[in-house]
Structures are given as structure tokens and as C-alpha cells.
Amino acid sequence: MYFTFPEKKSLKMKFPILTGHILIVEENQVDFVLIQNYLREEFFEIIIDRAKTFMEANAKLQGQIKYDTILLDLSLSDTNEVYLISEIVRLALSSPVIILINNSDKDFSIKMLSLGISDYLLKDEISASRLYKSITYSIERSRINKELIDSEENYRNLFDLSPIPMWVYNLETLQFLNVNKAAIDNYGYTKSEFLSMNIFDLQPEEDIEINKPLLNILKDGLPIRNNFRHVKKNGELINVEIKRSIYSTDNKTGLALSMDVTINFYQKSILAIEKKVYENAKGYNTISDFKAAIVALDNFVADYPGTPFKEDALYYKLDSAYQLGINSIPSKMEERLNVAKTAQANLIKFNGETKYKKVADEMLARIEKDLQKFTK
């Protein structure tokens, strides 16, 4: 799986696009076609294989092909969910497995994550951009996980040199056994202070009781990824994402990574993906495909409501709607101009002092002038 910059044979191909080999385990033909279309919409030169049953998936995963990602439907009729996930994750080796579910229950989803999947998506909420985000994020996370388990030497190097706070703990007592420099710097405790504590000592008192149900999972050393609140030595409360895995089965130790959700490494990766999705949507405006631009930019704002690119997306939607409106045939012009007028209002509502205010106001003046033709 890699990023490539193809030759600029057309304006539409100027964006960096992901390529790779994906296995879709899906017995429903309609769902398979929908997912396949979403993938082809976002990815370049992607190879898609399909397995309709667990037996077919089992055969493909034991073959010669190394899949970059596996998309797994949990509603297969030839096996149960837990066995299906366990076996697919085992057969996938280091390749990320993303499950597609109809069940929106949070406890169910957490249980599935504990079995080693990379992510889960609700079928009713899947879109091309969400699928793209989940796959690229899972591939990046899988790459990091692979580096963590390649060898004991890699463990030690990544542990000592990583900018991410990390610790090794006893699976039975949950006592800290070792912490890296990033953990000491971030939390403010000395190494000796860490070694006198257990992992629950980092949590505020009111959270400990709530998180006790996770105790057996922690002691079993099962892979887990959850959000917690931690307290630094100076009393500062922070929100962190904790990812745990087995460090050594012989010594009964686990490894944990603590990532501040406001500044962590993964967030930088997500932002890069987010920017790529925005640029792809904006690209339709660049090549004057204004209808597609309006849809793509609407989807982008819906999928990433807190994005730092929202103001730009709102402006290029306005520009696309404006260009489409003023160049429409008379029978469609009024409707499209009103769409552009609403887009201008949404931009100004989002930021009344937007950097696009001057050009947006000029567009509005032209829109209102042209709309007067339809009021006579």
C-alpha cells in the first residue's frame, strides 16, 4: 500500500491517490457493489477481491496474495460473529481488518475491538469519504503496530526513543514496570514514582469505579483501545487514548501507549487525510464540475464537522453554486441561484469576517440582481 503521484494527464488526476489490494468479505450482492463503488471513487488503481463466505475468505487469505485491508461483513450466514472475527484477524496477520456491522450497540463494538479488528463501520452510515478515512487510518495504525511486534530490539528502541508516552506493566497487579522518557516528561512523575504506582493511579478517583469492568481485559492482556482521563502530577486533567497489547507472555507484561488526543501523532495523520479529502472535493471546482463539487463539499462538511478546512469548503461550495447558477438555462437558473444565495448565507453565518467576505458579497449582489428577473 503506498501513495503515488500520477502524471498529470488531466486536472482530475493531480491529487495524490491511494492504491492497493483489498478483500471484501460480503455475501450480499447489493452491499458489495455499493462498497466497491465507494472504493473506486476514492482510490486509484485499486484491486478488489471478493469472498462471499467465510470458507472463501479462508482460502483467499491462505493464498499467495497479501491484502492491504480486509473489509468484513459480520452477517455471513456460514459462521458466528466471534469465531469469524477471530479467524479472519488470525489469517490476516498484520493486515488491518475493518468490520461492517448493522449493530450500533457501543458495548458490542468495544468487544469487537478487543478481538483485534482495526475499526468498525455501521453499514447505514458508510460513505466514500468515511471508508477512505477508516482504511487509511487503519493502514497507518497497522504499520505502527507491526513495528512494535517485529522484535524485542524494536520494542526497546521504540519504547526508549518514542515521543509517545509508553509504559510496561504487570498484567496481574497492573503495577508499572517501566516507563519511557516521554511518559516522565508528559506526566511529571519521576521514574521511581511511576514504579510505585499502578495504572489506575493515573485516573481521577471518580473514574476508577467506572473503569473497573475493564480490569479482566487488562489482566488478560487482550488488545484494547479506549479513551480515558488521566491526572498529571501537577493536577492537570487530560484526555488520552490508551492502546494496550501484550509485551511478553512469558513475563506476563503488557505494553501501553498513551496519546494526548489534542496533540498526539495519530491526530496529525487524521488531519493529513482530512486535507486530502478536502482537496479532492475542491478539485471538482477546479475542473468546473460544479454539480459534483457541491455534492462532494457538502459530504466533506458533514463528515468532518470540526475540520479546520470548513471555511474554505463553504466558500468553494458557494463559488460552485454561484458559477452553476449564473451559467444555467433560464428554467433552472432561479432554483440554482437560490441555492447559491443559501451557500453565501452559510459562509457568512460560519464566519462573518471570513477572508472570502469581499468576493462573497460581490457574488450575493450579482445573485440578487439576477433573481429580480424572476420577481417581475
Overview of the structural elements:
The protein is an alpha/beta fold and 376 residues long. It folds into three domains: 2-149, 3-Layer(aba) Sandwich (Rossmann fold); 152-263, PAS domain (Beta-Lactamase); 266-374, Tetratricopeptide repeat domain (Serine Threonine Protein Phosphatase 5, Tetratricopeptide repeat). It has 15 helices and twelve strands. The longest helix is centred in the middle third of the chain and has 22 residues, at 128-149. It is globular and about 85 Å long. The relative contact order is 0.07. Mean pLDDT is 84; it is low at 1-17.
Question: What is the count of DSSP helices, taking H or I runs of 4+ residues?
Answer: 15
CATH superfamily of the largest domain: Response regulator
Number of DSSP E strands: 12
Distance between the termini: 59 Å
- Strand order across the largest sheet: 4-3-5-6-7
Structural class of the helices, strands and pairings?
alpha/beta
Unreliable parts? 1-17
The percent range for helix content is: 40-55%
CATH topology of the largest domain: Rossmann fold
Radius of gyration: 25 Å
Name of the CATH architecture of the largest domain: 3-Layer(aba) Sandwich
Order of helices and strands: EEEHEHEHEHEHHEEHHHHEEEHHHHH
Quick check: average pLDDT? Answer: 84
